Amino acid sequence: MWLEVFRQSLRDTWRGLAWWAVGLTLYVLLILAFYPSIKNDPAISQVIQNLPEALRSLFGEDFSSPAGYVGGRLFSLMPVLLSVFAGLSGAALIAGAEARGHLEFPLSQPLARGALLAGRALALFVLLLGLGFVLFLSTWVFGQLFQAPLPAARVLETAALHTLGAWVFGALALAVGAATGRPGLASALGAGLGTGLVVLHTLSGQVTALRDTGWLNPWHAALAESPLRNVVGAGPLLACLLAGLVWVFLAAPLLGRRDVGR
Prior knowledge:
The chain is an all-alpha fold and about 260 residues long. It has 13 helices and no strands.
């Protein structure tokens, strides 16, 4: 039954994913189309050197190389965009459906609530993978077209790290929505915490306490190890995947005991 829930969830949400994919592709195109005009401009480097250290740590200091430009101008904002998508999508799949009265029919069927949660969690994961693939493909293709070629493996690993980082917060929104039935609270916690932790990661270069505890931040792996330049490995990917699954497992008994629809 959970596979049918998964398929139905994808049928209900593919249009939203398509619009996000179009918007993300246009954003990547806009960013990379500017690269040929600024890569050899010394004035850009001077402006960057005059920025506060916190902003330099977020956007990078090297806009002359493809990896520096793509990492600083494009991927630096991806945690925010992906967190918003993940938080809104996670909140909509159970709490949002419940608020719209769309959970009454599936729950009137011989369907365990755990199966409902599993099917919708898998749908959320696939939606994020789809958007992450669009990010990878558009970055790699437009990089080839606009004089910013990057190895496909490095772009793929970077997109995967950002996608699974957002999965943590999407799963949190799904879990909070399943446990409470409140889509506003779920989306605010998922998208808000994902965005807030990006800010904390940015400040970690100046605040010792944040730097010492940075390994707890899911965005640390995606932003700290420069995956466009260095091989990060599977460890951070698995950690983010498991962190999201923990949220889902914690929500299962709460959804099972809750009076859904009231």
